[in-house]
Design goal:
- The chain has 627 residues and is α+β, with helices and mostly antiparallel strands.
- 16% of the residues lie in helices and 38% in strands.
- The chain contains eleven helices and 30 strands.
- The strands form three sheets. The protein has a 21-stranded mixed beta sheet that branches.
- A hairpin with a 2-residue loop joins strand 29 and strand 30.
- It is globular, with a radius of gyration of 24 Å.
Length: 627
């Protein structure tokens, strides 16, 4: 760990950030912006590399494990024993660190007085990168597993851990496995997912829950407000998957001061000064647009009601229930304009949805006579029957402008075999109606006068959802079907969080859509790079390259394929005290299927200088469990 202490002899509270993302290189620049500031303002700031990551010993075998949580509880106990700590500890974390903070808080260590959870979730199964509504998230499961494998297979820094670094590295490589192997072995919500998930009702310490409308974990803010038996303060901005002081799109805020105000109150045993929920309301967002600064406003004290709209046979959404039946058999290429599940840069945001709308069954409201503000989680209830025993449903809400452009607001998925829950999925009986409710992602958005709301549904949404084994036709029985919108009945203005400021654009993303007319194979290729960086003069340099290909042949769902390559270089130039040090880790992953099984193939290679020091090739088969 790295520790920053304030001046002065008096013991102070400690703020702990625990992640596997390597304090000596990958997060060093980020840590330098945050932890010294906490120390200057009267806290002990602690940044911990988790077991098996960075400079820490041991092995990192999965996410948020019981061992990992117990490690952090032990570290909290150790902090309380230090003469510079007054026995009060808070945890702060982004993504993995936020997941872990929620899980540790549910264990209720006595010294843990508050947590700040940013862009995270307590639900490993349904609220993360693996499954959504029981659908396998093809767009994220293997790509993220490939990224984590590459990161965990990197060597520790010799100048931090000493001459045993190579032995430690080879041990990591020998035990490294793609986490996707465990995730594919558990396709339903079973006991595996309980470890590392947080029961929000067990948390008693105050929580600052932070999300962004451009981040897929934003639902956690609403879940915590509803489920936690604790004092929760929610903050949702326009941001993506990052801390709010550096995330795009902006405006960004001084999140350090936001945390300090919250933690000062928590350590004093007083209610946090923030209101229960502050939210940024987007306004006038164009399709695919990611301006550095979004247009909108901060709001607080919202009273949200529910408005139901009902689909009709002629494709409208109206305020009164309707009857009838509609049929949809979407091409497998539906979803090509979905954008990224976790957008990092300008190329990741969903473009105009009219192409996907045209491949889906859609219902559109009449133009609005007055502006309408949505804040919360829409739901869609549908009664359908399929012509196959396995089928999925994708639902999207869009904002349709007078000129016809269709801006994606939110979406959701459900595997119809999971219609009654993901613990015990059941096959469909072809032709027999079933009713399912789809929870869409939370939204904070103002619909303008003259605009319309559109609901689009489809039985295919590649590459977000792995397709059903056969091409599916769905028949929707409209009686009893509706979409529930979280409409704000009152919305108070809010002062902006401290020190709104501009940020730089996000990392560039290259996204290409290719269609081979001869083979009918459509491929979406996504390339991301992080140019060579040296976060600290005494630290190593690193660079990253990622390439994902999602492809499918129209009419053949068994042709679906995800191929991922990852390369991370970690190097240090020759210095007077040490020789040149160059390492490289590469991963190649491929997920494919037939009607009965998924097949995961993973190659891991590691190089020191130009010599390959390790290679493993694994091919694992997993029976398809109602997917």
């Amino acid at each position: 760990m790295r520790i920053w202490l304030p001046d002065g002899p008096e013991p102070v509270p400690a703020i702990l950030e625990a992640t596997p993302y390597r304090k000596d290189d990958f997060t060093r620049a980020r840590d330098r912006e945050r932890h010294p500031w906490f120390a200057e303002h009267g806290y002990a700031a602690v940044r911990l590399d988790l077991r098996g990551s960075g400079a820490s010993g041991g092995l990192l075998v999965d996410e948020y494990t019981d061992r990992e949580q117990r490690d952090v509880v032990n570290v909290i106990d150790w902090l309380c024993e230090q003469p510079w700590c007054d026995g009060h500890v808070a945890m702060i974390g982004l993504s993995w660190g936020g997941f872990l903070a929620l899980a540790v808080a549910a264990r209720r260590p006595p010294a843990l007085k508050a947590i700040v959870a940013v862009c995270s979730s307590g639900d490993r199964y349904g609220g993360d990168v693996k499954y959504m509504g029981g659908c396998l998230l093809a767009t994220q499961l293997v790509p993220w597993a490939s990224t984590v494998l590459t990161e965990t297979a990197r060597p520790p820094d010799p100048e931090v851990v000493g001459p045993g670094w190579r032995t430690q590295w080879l041990e990591r490589l020998e035990h490294a496995r793609s986490f996707a192997e465990s995730w594919l072995a558990h396709q339903r919500r079973d006991g595996y997912w309980a470890e590392g998930s947080a029961d929000y009702s067990r948390i008693r310490c105050p929580i600052l829950a932070v999300g962004g409308w451009a981040d897929p974990y934003r639902d956690t803010v609403f879940d915590l407000l509803e489920q936690a038996n604790a004092d929760v303060r929610g903050l949702i901005g326009p941001w993506g998957h990052d801390y709010p002081d550096s995330s795009t799109p902006g405006p960004a805020i001084d999140f350090r001061r936001e945390c300090a105000a919250f933690l000062d109150a928590a350590f004093a045993g007083a209610p946090p000064p923030q209101p229960p929920l502050r939210a940024w309301i987007d306004h006038g967002l164009a399709p695919g647009e990611q301006p550095v600064e979004r247009t909108g406003r901060w709001a607080v004290g919202a009273s949200t009601g529910e408005t139901r709209l009902f689909p009709t046979e002629d494709g409208l959404l109206v305020s009164e229930p309707a009857a009838g039946e509609r049929t949809v058999a979407s091409p497998l290429r539906t979803g090509a304009d979905a954008g990224a599940w976790l957008p990092w840069g300008p190329g990741d945001f969903a473009p105009d949805q009219r192409r996907d709308d045209g491949l889906s069954l859609t219902f559109t409201s009449r133009p609005l006579a007055v502006p309408v503000v949505l804040l919360g989680r829409p739901r869609v209830r549908l009664t359908v029957h399929a012509d196959a025993p396995r089928a999925l449903l994708a639902a999207r809400l869009t904002d349709v402008a007078p000129d016809g452009t269709s801006t994606l607001l939110t979406r959701g998925l459900v595997n119809l075999c999971h219609r009654d829950g993901s613990e015990h999925p059941q096959p469909l009986v072809p032709g027999e109606p079933v009713t399912a409710e789809i929870r869409l992602g939370a939204v904070g958005y103002e619909l303008e006068t003259g605009h319309s709301v559109r609901l689009g549904i489809s039985p295919a949404y590649w590459s977000w959802a792995w397709p059903s084994p056969t091409v599916v036709t769905l028949h929707a029985e409209l009686a009893g079907c509706y979409v529930t919108l979280p409409v704000c009945e009152s919305l108070g203005p809010a002062d902006p969080p401290p020190d709104e400021h501009s940020v730089e654009p996000g990392e560039p993303v290259e996204r290409r859509l290719q269609h081979d007319v001869a083979t009918r194979r459509q491929t979406v290729e996504v390339k991301r790079t992080r140019d060579r960086q040296q976060p600290a003069p005494d630290g190593p340099e690193f660079e990253v390259e990622e390439l994902d290909r999602f492809s499918i042949v129209e009419g053949d769902p068994l042709s679906a394929e995800v191929v991922c390559t990852r390369t991370i270089k970690l190097e240090r130039s020759r210095r007077a005290t040490s020789p040149e040090w160059r390492t490289r880790v590469g991963v190649h992953s491929r997920l494919s299927c037939d009607a009965a099984d998924f097949v995961l193939e993973t190659t891991l290679e590691a190089f020191e200088a130009d010599e390959r020091v390790f290679r493993s090739d694994r091919r694992t088969t997993f029976p398809r469990d109602h997917v």
